[in-house]
Amino acid sequence: MATFTLLLSQPLSDANNVINLMGFAQAARIAGHDITSVFCYQAGTEFANQLQVLPSDEPNIRKQLKSFCQQHGIALEVCISAANRRGVISDEDASDNDLAHHSLDPDFALVGLGELAQHLQRSDRVVQF
Amino acid sequence: MSAKLAILLNQPPLSSWSNQEGLDLAMLCASFGQDVALFFVGDGVWQLCPDINPQSAGRKNFHKSLKAMEFYDIEHLYVCEQSLAERGIDGQSLGLEIQLLSPARISQLLADHPQVVRF
């Protein structure tokens, strides 16, 4: 049995990448492996932006990822500095910086990059999507 | 003993935040006591060129971060000599403590690292 960290670093537009991530996570769980979390870094932080509206005939990969993680009890985390750089802002950070709006999806835990460092220390492998 | 975490930088440094976010992760993991090695390949070697001025391209000065790596005990900076040659960059002119390696040696070393994150 191994422990995996899943690092999501590709943008929201790469839906196939997330489908691969979910397929991998499911297969790893079935094979008895552990997954520390799905950690969103770089462009992957776009998944934590709840201010997205899609035409009704388009699949919503962001919501699919959220329900997949909920269903499988996998934590969804997002790096605060990478998120803030890309306009993914919590309620608290919005008011601290005099911004009129916030965009962070509350289903994502806003954490420091140190959290990823700790996951990597505890994991046998990291798989990047 | 080889380092556990390899950070592979292969993206050009001025067209995205990729290299900056890769170096940030390297420094953070090192400050948590993890062994980290940096690999510069492909267009990632451009960030080693002192002539490139990040500020003129609207970017933070990553040369300072690269110089600071030794203070984080990141001693392994591996650079692909073929990537340098293809871009006409003289490896001796970079002013950093780096090791120039062949692509074959780079892939051998990467295979020794159980964790590789690409930027």
From TrEMBL, chain A:
Entry's localization field: Cytoplasm
Source taxon at top rank: Bacteria
Keyword terms of this UniProt record: Cytoplasm, Transferase
One Pfam family linked to the record: DsrE
Alphabetical list of InterPro entries matching this protein: DsrEFH-like (IPR027396), Sulphur_relay_DsrE/F-like (IPR003787), Sulphur_relay_TusD/DsrE (IPR017463)
Family that this chain belongs to: Belongs to the DsrE/TusD family.
NCBIfam families: PRK00207.1, sulf_tusD_dsrE
Protein name as catalogued: Sulfurtransferase complex subunit TusD
UniProtKB/TrEMBL annotation, chain B:
UniProt-listed InterPro entries: DsrEFH-like, Sulphur_relay_DsrE/F-like, Sulphur_relay_TusC/DsrF
Pfam family, one: DsrE
Residue ranges crossing the lipid bilayer per the database entry: none
Family designation: Belongs to the DsrF/TusC family.
Name of the protein in its database record: Sulfurtransferase complex subunit TusC
